[in-house]
Amino acid sequence: MSKLSTKHLLGIKYITKDDIELIFQTADNFKQVINRPIKKVPSLRDITIANLFFENSTRTKLSFELAEKRLSADVINFASSSSSVKKGETLVDTVNNILAMKVDMVVMRHPNPGAAYFLSKQVDAQIINAGDGAHEHPTQALLDAYSIREKYGEVKGKKIVIVGDIAHSRVALSNIFCLQKLGAEVKLCGPLTLIPKYITSLGVEVETNLRKALEWCDVAMMLRIQLERQDKKYFPSLREYSMLYGLNKELLDSLGKEITVMHPGPINRGVEITSDVADSNQAIILDQVENGVAVRMAVLYLLAGKKVD
Ligand code: CP
Fold first, then answer.
1. Is the same domain home to 56 and 20?
2. DSSP per-residue string spanning 78-94
3. Pairing state of beta strands 48-53 and 74-79?
């Protein structure tokens, strides 16, 4: 297979295992490119991409921009805080005005779940979801699974626990879909107030005891408490949360085996993860960030219809 089965990347739910494997094979090539002295290829020099960020981002925004520039695309950036959205313009009008400037692809982060899907039905451009509320963050899950594949050779058969605020996390949902499509076992861990009841219908187990979850897993994916998406209190205090669900060095060392620690960022040091764990050899957090550029290059390249030889 040399083409994706989809025109847009709206979520991992809507792509196939073959799509994911094609993205990984393509990312392998781009990872070599970005480690060369000249980190650029001309593949997308005929393509213009708009990055639309209606919500804050450091990693995803910069990673997409760098991926686009490494592929020689023309790039324009849009931040809602300094745009005419503040004057009452609709999302569709905003995007259609940008597309009138001959833009081919739109990368969008938006606080509303379903915003990328909605846009894909309303405008004539390819849409890449860079995170839509608590729904999906497909390129984060792809780079996470790619990093697990890089560490272990394959994702199939690996035991992955996702720890923390599952209820408000787009990273958790995209990772559940992605890791399961690749044949991994996925468990969720956290206080039950932060784990939605429907989630077991996706074929994942829930474990409320962090030590038991860590003893079971090969990889622990630690998540931030998404305070910006919480409308009420889900646990008594961050201090108590940290005592029960924070990963510290003492707990990690007491497991009697080596596990891999991941985090999509941004990290809240001292809450879900202590500094000595985040900065330890068992953590691959910065490898995830590095792989994000190669994976996003692969996604953009393949969605632009460029074929893999
Ligand atoms: N992981 C992630 O999406 O980080 P940003 O919010 O900084 O983009």
1. yes
2. EEGGGSGGGGT--HHHH
3. parallel
**The domain spanning residue 147 has which CATH number?**
3.40.50.1370
Q: How many CA atoms lie within 13 A of 130 on its CB side?
A: 26
Cα 254 to averaged position of ligand 1 atoms, centre (Å): 31
Rounded-to-integer distance, Cα 247 and Cα 100, Å: 49
Nearest to 130 by CA among 67, 176, 209, 185: 67
My answer on whether 67 and 159 are in the same domain is no
Joined tokens for residue 225: 């408490």
Sheet holding 105-110, edge to edge: 74-79, 48-53, 105-110, 126-132
Which residue range(s) make up the domain with 196? 138-284
Residues 59 and 178 in one domain: no
Q: 191: Cβ below 6 Å to ligand 1?
A: no
Q: Is 51 in the pocket of ligand 1 (CB under 6 A)?
A: no
Q: Report the residue among 51, 52, 58, 295 best suited for mutation to probe ligand 1: largest number of ligand atoms under 8 A from its CB.
A: 58
CB 76 within 8 A of CB 100: no
The reply to whether ligand 1 has any atom less than 6 angstroms from the CB of 60 is: yes
> Are 161 and 279 part of one and the same domain?
yes
Query: How do the pLDDT tens digits run along the chain, 309 residues long?
Result: 689 999 999 999 999 999 999 999 999 999 999 999 999 999 999 999 999 999 999 999 999 999 999 999 999 998 887 777 778 889 999 999 999 999 999 999 999 999 999 999 999 999 999 999 999 999 999 999 999 999 999 999 999 999 999 999 999 999 999 999 999 999 999 999 999 999 999 999 999 999 999 999 999 999 998 877 777 788 888 999 999 999 999 999 999 999 999 999 999 999 999 999 999 999 999 999 999 999 999 999 999 986 665
Compute the distance from residue 41 Cα to the ligand 1 centre, in Å: 25
